[in-house]
Amino acid sequence: MLFPVGNKMPEIQFPSFLYVALERKGPWREEGAPGRGAGAGSSGGLCLPCLTQHLHRAKLRNPTGEGFPAPAPPGPAMDSTTKNETQPALLPVPAAVAHTQSLIDAQQLLEAYVSLRELEQLQEETWESLGDLELPIFEGLGPLSEALGQAVEAAVGAAGQLAREDPALLVAAVRVAEVETGRTTSLEQAPRDWRQRCLRALQEGLERVHFGTHLLPGPGALAGWLEALRVALPAELATAEALIAPCCPPHYKVVQLWAHTLHSGLRRCLQQFMEGPELGAADAFTLLHWALHVYLGPEMMGSLELGPEADVSQLEPLLTLENIEQLEATFVSKVRANVVQWLQKALDGEVAEWGREQEPDTDPSGFYHSPMPAIVLQILEENIRVTSLVSESLQRRVHGMALSELGAFLRSFSDALIRFSRDHLRGEAMAPHYVSYLLAALNHQSALSSSVSVLQPDGVASGALAPVEAALEELQRRICRLVLEALLVELQPLFMALPSRQWLSSPELLDDVCERTARFCRDFWRVRNPAVQLLLAEAERTVVLQYLCALMQGRLVCRGADERNQAAERLQHDAAKLQDLFLNLGLEESFQCASVLLTLRKLLNLRDPTMLGLEVAGLRQQFPDVSEDHVSALLDLRGDVSREQRLAALSSLQAGPQPSPSAGRRALFSLVPTPTPAPSSCLPSGPCA
Questions:
Q1: Which residue segment(s) compose the domain that 123 sits in?
Q2: Is the residue at 479 inside a domain?
């Protein structure tokens, strides 16, 4: 069918040269197909010689239907006879010009073109007969021709609308342009290349419909605009293939023209966006995803319904590499700013809880709990995950940013804990549940540490998490240290009375230490494993170190064998007491350090001072970091060692090869300075193996 039902062109009386172009089975037929006005064996194509032949045979008609008298044959000069013969033929020209203009105004383009060509033929024949003399009466043909060209151009520029509403007008406009293209006259006039004007009009009209200035989105409206294009552009291509292409000759390559025009118009618009104000994170992400995936996907340019005639393989990328780099950098920068704000808000909310009158919240199992770790990881993980929808390069950028900001967050968290501890210990801002919130912070660290792997996308080197893991370990050590400092505040006054003669005769001093320690550690069970084991080991180590520090102060010198035996028994009793205490708190014996007291007991319990060298050598084998000062302090505690015996015992520290530290055993005596330092110098700095 040539046109949709109800859009048939009316029957028009045309010269034979236009029937060649008009009367066929379809709008555009192959050469050689017969049509009205083409005799047997004649070509049905739009060939110029054929049209010229028909043009010279055409009868020039005036608006009333009466023929113009034929002009006189051309001659070298205009004599009175020629003038008398020519003048009647020119009388209807003004009326014919006005009639042609009215046809143009009424969008009767084929009739207007016929009338224009008849007038131009009369002008040409008159020009030849008058010896190349131009007459003023034909001055209106130039503007008339341009008016028709503009009308043809306007009709073709509205091809999308006309193909649906008035395809006959579109066909007429294209046929006028095709008949006119390449036609030459004997007049000294440039050829009218209306075909190129039509092609330009098709492109400009298409761009105007979808990419006109008034249609471009404002701030925040980019996503809606792109979504509208996702629907409109495939529909436009379908219209071009189904409705517009049949109205145009094959060499117009309408589908390819449509695809390339839409692409170039869209590309130009996107370049304008890139050169304008910086986009927000959402717009940058939307544009990247749309250009790299939606536009090239099966719903648009990658559609299987889009045939090879669209030739989309030749389209240049919608976004250049520089555009992609700019958009990725913009997105990462904007997201970083948002992440910093969100993480700071999460930290501020957590810090605000630390001064509450209530203990920290707990989960159903009784462990201290806060939503902060989950919030932090969710913020970072979602930003990493969503970038996988765009490209690996963007995901790598956001992954690096997320780990960097997580490291900064952990440092801020640690600094906030230090300020919290300082203000509490100085009495500037006493926290009712100071230790409990430190324990809760340890659970937060554990939650982050156990879940940080969710920030590791596929294909990213495992070592990328190493800096964050190191920062988490440092945070754990910092929290443990703050807890132990609070424990020291509780225990240091008690250890000031140890050792003493009261200590020799009564277990009360250590009982007080154990009672205070048990009370301090009563909420440790609310800390999750493995952090609770680390914390208990550090607490036990702190108590033992304080015990050793007290022994080295020289506060007690045994006055005989009985007191030495009492001291030895007290060390044995205290070691057992401490071991039972921490076993009850949940610390396995293999992680405890109190057994060092049993080794020192042997040194005090030895009856023959001449054998001290063997005991000192054994002490050195177990604790390679023991020094002469430590041994001297212990010998002073015995109270029965002569100068020679002391020198002999100390010399055993240098005898034989230097023992290597036992695998998994940490330094102990090196943390016990002598003579007496500030008590806090005995604080440990790491986990007990």
A1: 16-197
A2: no
| Domain end among 197, 222, 242 | 197
| Cis peptide upstream of residue 277 (ω within 30 degrees of 0) | no
Number of independent structural domains in the chain: 4
pTM flag (> 0.85): no
The per-residue DSSP string of 113-151 comes to HHHHHHHHHHHHHHHHHTTSPPPGGGTTHHHHHHHHHHH
Q: Which of 304, 166, 170, 177 is nearest to 237 (CA)?
A: 304
Q: How many Cα neighbours within 13 Å face the side chain of 463?
A: 0
pLDDT digit string (tens) for 565-607? 999 999 999 999 999 999 999 999 889 999 999 999 999 988 9
* Nearest partner of 437 among 489, 514, 372, 529, judged by Cα: 372
Q: How many CB atoms lie within 10 A of CB 440?
A: 27
Rounded Cα gap, residues 552 and 606, in angstroms: 19
CATH number at residue 574: 1.10.357.70
> Is 676 a member of any domain?
yes
Instruction: Tell me the C-alpha to C-alpha distance, in Å, between residue 100 and each of 96, 237, 481, 511.
Output: 6, 36, 99, 120
Question: Could you tell me the two tokens for 525?
Answer: 């069970």
Task: Compute the radius of gyration of the chain from its Cα atoms.
Answer: 50
Is there a domain that residue 2 lies in? no
Same structural domain for residues 425 and 536? no
32: left (phi over 0), alpha (psi -120 to 50) or beta: left
pLDDT (mean) for 157-162:
92
Residue range 89-122, pLDDT digits in tens: 677 888 889 999 999 999 999 999 999 989 888 8
464 and 361 within one domain: yes
Considering the domain architecture, whether residues 586 and 509 belong to the same structural domain is answered as yes
- The verdict on 299 and 349 lying in the same domain is no
What's the CA gap between 98 and 192, in Å, rounded?
A: 21
User: What sections of 46-108 are H helices per DSSP?
Assistant: 48-57, 80-90, 93-105
pLDDT score for 495:
93
Cα–Cα distance for residue pair 549/560, rounded to 1 Å: 23
Q: Over range 278-305, report the average pLDDT.
A: 88
DSSP state of 357: S
- Reading the block at residue 123, the tokens are 């002008």
Express each pLDDT in 213-234 by its tens digit.
Answer: 777 787 778 999 999 999 999 9
According to the model, what pLDDT value does residue 6 have? Answer: 36
The CA distance from 424 to 417, in Å, is 10
Q: Residue 350 belongs to a domain with what CATH number?
A: 1.10.357.50
Both tokens of 337, joined, read: 């700013």
Ordered alpha helix ranges (H), 158-221: 159-165, 167-180, 194-211
Nearest one of 275, 265, 163 to 212, comparing CA atoms? 265
Asked whether residue 272 falls in the same domain as residue 347, the answer is no
What confidence tier does 245 reach under pLDDT thresholds 50, 70, 90? very high
Cβ atoms 252, 46 nearer than 8 A: no
Reported confidence tier of residue 131, pLDDT bands at 50, 70, 90: low
Determine the Cα–Cα distance for residues 313 and 298; give it in Å rounded to an integer: 14
pLDDT of residue 57: 38
How far apart CA 626 and CA 672 sit, in angstroms, is: 9
* DSSP H stretches of helix in 426-507: 434-451, 466-495, 501-505
Q: In the numeric block, which tokens belong to residue 687?
A: 């986990």
439 belongs to a structural domain:
yes
CA torsion, points 321, 326, 329, 333, in degrees to nearest 10? -170
Residue 677: pLDDT band (50, 70, 90) is very low
418, 443, 474 - which closes a domain:
474
DSSP-assigned beta bridge partners for residue 132 = none
**CA dist 228 → 231, 232, 366 (Å):** 5, 6, 53
